[in-house]
């Protein structure tokens, strides 16, 4: 570590992950008090000195997204006014990332608005994991470090599926055209084949599978995606793959949003298992779903923070 003091604070969105990151770095979590006034307003009090320190604020913008976003902004402002040297916003899950462009007339680009808010609040750097749209990095005028769950998942796939070099009974599947690059990277690292699902989305939250490109018959299919929200796309993909003769279907998703009927759909589907990271903490029915397993991203996030603090390369983490 460098001579500059490092401190890690977190809001209420993902304290478990923040504590795991602190354990990885062998430091104590920062002491902050977050309360809600009777009218719902958030108040943050930093209860230790942060003057001239390098501060990391770990906060996922996950449901309830608006409350968690506001908590982070208020905390960053409090740290700025307490004379912190640097304030790095660590967003394991960047909420609003799916609103990254105007899809129709008179629509906002909310991902850019969130970027502006984070910078105006006082963040001097941003770190995030598996952005839904990589171009969001360009919405910021401060350094942005984009982390990838790929190395974590690839290692887990090798262990969980017993994959050895040249395994021909496994196929990595992209659930849509937008995820092809991610799926191709997985397939290349694992040295297995690739398949792509051609789908249409007539309206938000509704997906229709049109075709499957690639050979899946008799193979163990592994769907890889960044976000699992209502699980509509996922379960439709499973149905199509099984109809095409896949031996089994498993899924890897970085961000476990699991909103609405997601868990009900997963339980009712032929999915063998779903593996996610802890970028978003599991809550409610997801905790009891036996098909869901969690692989922690804390070592990846912790190593990224250590490298930022010591001035080392982050990109070499993914070589």
Radius of gyration: 20 Å
Biggest β-sheet strands, sense, barrel: 7 strands, mixed
Q: In CATH, what is the class of the largest domain?
A: Alpha Beta
Class inferred from helices and paired strands: alpha/beta
Number of strands: 14
- Strands in their spatial order, largest beta sheet: 10-9-8-11-12-13-14
Per DSSP, the total helix count is: 9
- What's the SSE pattern? EHEEEHEHEEHEHEEEHEHEHEH
- Please tell me the overall pLDDT: 94
Q: Strand percentage, roughly?
A: 25-35%
Count structural domains.
2
Terminal CA distance reads: 23 Å
CATH topology of the largest domain: Rossmann fold
What is the correct CATH architecture of the largest domain?
3-Layer(aba) Sandwich
Low-confidence segments: none
- Helix percent reads 25-40%
Oligomer: single chain
Task: Characterize the overall form.
Answer: globular
Describe the structure in your own words.
The protein is of the alpha/beta class and 319 residues long. It has two domains: 6-147 and 298-318, Rossmann fold (3-Layer(aba) Sandwich), CATH 3.40.50; 150-295, Rossmann fold (3-Layer(aba) Sandwich), CATH 3.40.50.2020. It is 31% helix and 27% strand. It is built from nine helices and 14 strands. It has helices at residues 15-25, 65-81, 110-121, 150-161, 180-190, 232-243, 262-268, 285-288, 298-310; strands at residues 6-10, 32-36, 42-46, 54-58, 86-91, 125-129, 144-147, 170-174, 193-203, 206-213, 220-228, 248-256, 273-277, 292-295. The protein has a seven-stranded mixed sheet with strand order 10-9-8-11-12-13-14, sandwiched between helices. It has a five-stranded parallel sheet with strand order 1-4-5-6-7, with helices on both faces. It has a two-stranded antiparallel sheet with strand order 2-3. α6 (232-243) links the parallel β11 and β12 (248-256). The longest helix has 17 residues, at 65-81. The two termini are 23 Å apart. The mean pLDDT is 94.
């Amino acid at each position: 570590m460098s001579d500059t003091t490092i401190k890690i604070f977190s809001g209420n969105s993902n304290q478990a992950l923040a504590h795991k990151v602190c354990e990885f770095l062998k430091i104590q979590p920062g002491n902050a008090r977050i309360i809600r006034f009777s009218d719902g307003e958030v108040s943050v009090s930093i209860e230790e000195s942060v003057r001239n320190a390098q501060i990391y604020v770990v906060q996922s913008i996950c449901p309830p997204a608006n409350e968690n976003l506001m908590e982070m902004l208020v905390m960053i402002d409090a740290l700025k006014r307490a004379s912190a040297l640097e304030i790095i916003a660590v967003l394991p899950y960047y909420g609003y990332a799916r609103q990254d462009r105007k899809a129709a007339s008179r629509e906002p680009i909310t991902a850019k608005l969130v970027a502006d808010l984070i910078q105006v609040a006082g963040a001097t750097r941003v770190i995030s994991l598996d952005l839904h749209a990589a171009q969001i990095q360009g919405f910021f005028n401060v350094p942005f470090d984009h982390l990838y769950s790929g190395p974590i998942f690839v290692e887990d796939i090798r262990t969980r599926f017993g994959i050895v070099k040249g395994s021909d009974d496994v196929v990595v599947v992209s659930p849509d055209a937008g995820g092809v690059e991610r799926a191709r990277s997985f397939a290349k690292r694992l040295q297995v084949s690739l398949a792509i699902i051609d789908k249409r989305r007539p309206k938000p939250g509704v997906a229709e599978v049109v075709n499957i490109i690639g050979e899946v018959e008799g193979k163990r299919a592994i769907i890889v995606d960044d976000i699992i929200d209502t699980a509509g796309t996922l379960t439709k993909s499973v149905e199509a793959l099984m109809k095409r003769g896949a031996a089994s279907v498993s899924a890897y998703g970085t961000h476990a949003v699991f909103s609405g009927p997601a868990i009900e759909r997963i339980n009712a589907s032929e999915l063998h298992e779903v593996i996610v990271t802890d970028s978003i903490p599991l809550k409610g029915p997801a905790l009891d779903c036996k098909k869901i397993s969690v692989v922690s991203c804390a070592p990846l996030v912790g190593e990224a923070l250590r490298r930022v603090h010591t001035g080392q390369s982050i990109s070499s983490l993914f070589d």
